[in-house]
Design a protein that fits this description.
- The protein has about 200 residues and is α/β, with parallel strands linked by helices.
- It contains six helices and seven strands, in the order βαβααβαβββαβα.
- It has one domain: Rossmann fold (3-Layer(aba) Sandwich).
- The strands form two sheets. A five-stranded parallel sheet has the order 2-1-3-6-7, sandwiched between helices.
- The longest helix is centred in the C-terminal third of the chain and has 21 residues.
- The mean pLDDT is about 95.
Length: about 200
């Protein structure tokens, strides 16, 4: 059975969060096309992921059981990933970064070799769903965007090269009819992407 992880990083629900609303639209479309697939939601705020401390790193380096191991194994076992996160201060929320630290385990997600790093999660697919308060694409500040680009690079590092994104830009800048038109368009794009994922 195909297993999908729907990984959400926003403390607000979909009535107040554009990234959640778009992500849920995409997921609904995916489920409609793939009703037999297993979808597991990981709300990184509800799970309360914590940073890695000295003990965590020591346990990892000595081969002792860690708090990260179950999450890393769950991630590696899944077939598809849907990451949902807003752009906050140029990157993903800190809770999503903590989750990434949990799943990026040597020997599970990747391994080091004499020829360099080898990703172990090949033949998998990922989507990033994001929202940005302003406009970045094609603008002088485009290189400052480190949410979608971060998740894309993490996935590439672990071997996931089938990667797509749907991004709502101007979520805080747009008003009235412009906001309504732009949000309708991005929701349609999300539904279409979900249907073909």
């Amino acid at each position: 059975m195909t297993e999908v992880l729907f990984i959400v990083s926003h403390p607000l629900d979909s009535t107040k969060s554009w990234s959640r609303k778009i992500g849920e639209k995409l997921l609904a479309s995916y489920r409609e096309k793939n009703p037999s697939h297993k979808v597991t939601t990981i709300d990184v705020y509800k799970e309360e992921f914590t940073p890695l401390y000295e003990k965590d790193l020591t346990d990892m380096m000595t081969g002792s059981p860690t708090k990260m191991l179950p999450w890393a194994k769950q991630f590696a076992a899944a077939d598809k990933y849907i990451f949902v996160a807003p752009l906050w201060n140029f990157s993903v929320p800190s809770q999503m970064k903590c989750y990434i630290d949990y799943i990026m385990q040597p020997g599970i997600a990747f391994r080091y070799t004499e020829q360099g790093v080898v990703g172990l999660l090949k033949e998998k697919k990922a989507i990033f769903v994001g929202s940005r308060g302003g406009f970045y694409k094609g603008q002088p500040i485009e290189s400052m965007e480190m949410a979608e680009s971060y998740i894309r690079n993490v996935m590439k590092f672990v071997g996931v090269t089938d990667f797509s994104s749907v991004i709502f830009e101007g979520a805080s800048a747009l008003r009235g009819a412009d906001l309504e038109k732009a949000s309708e368009k991005i929701l349609q794009e999300a539904a279409a992407l979900g249907a073909q994922f």
